[in-house]
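Hi U.,

Before I forget, here's the chain from the pilot set. I'm dumping it here mostly so it's searchable later in email.
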Amino acid sequence: LNDHLRINENTISLSGPTIGSTFSLFDSFETENEFHGGQFGLRILTQKNDCWTFEWSALLALGNTRSTATINGQTTATPRDGSSTTTNVGLLARESNIGEYRLNKFSGIAELGVNVRRQFACGWTARFGYTAFFWSDVLRAGDQIDLNVNPSENSTGQTSSEIAPVFPGETGSFWAQGMNLGLEYSF
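Structure:
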């Protein structure tokens, strides 16, 4: 499961000593999750008559989720004279949280599904199904944003008080749903 969030900002100073200067910055938050474990489950197939078949499935996987979060940022300041300065910090991605972070957590994946098949006498079969999927303890990009920005930190990343923002390392759940529809011909 990969997740990416990028925030871009472009501004022009309208007053003060930086009047006419442009500031272009971005913050990037990426996460990648890999599951390693074992899966077991149950599938039940019932046939009501020669035409209708129902399949129910319930699967559970337990194991380790290996997660990686990468936080980057950049600011380019261009004064009126056209020279520019680039620093490797953004607004929400600062020296205090920029980098790559790795987590390993015990997690589980649950999947429930149902498929309905209708067979026709002419060799055609129509299929419709629904699946619900749940994965615990994953890193999502939006959850790794710390909105506590230190206002005294300057553009070089030097700070005079508390360290902020920090890497939260918050894990959450991932839900997904899906439907399938198919038509097949046997000869």
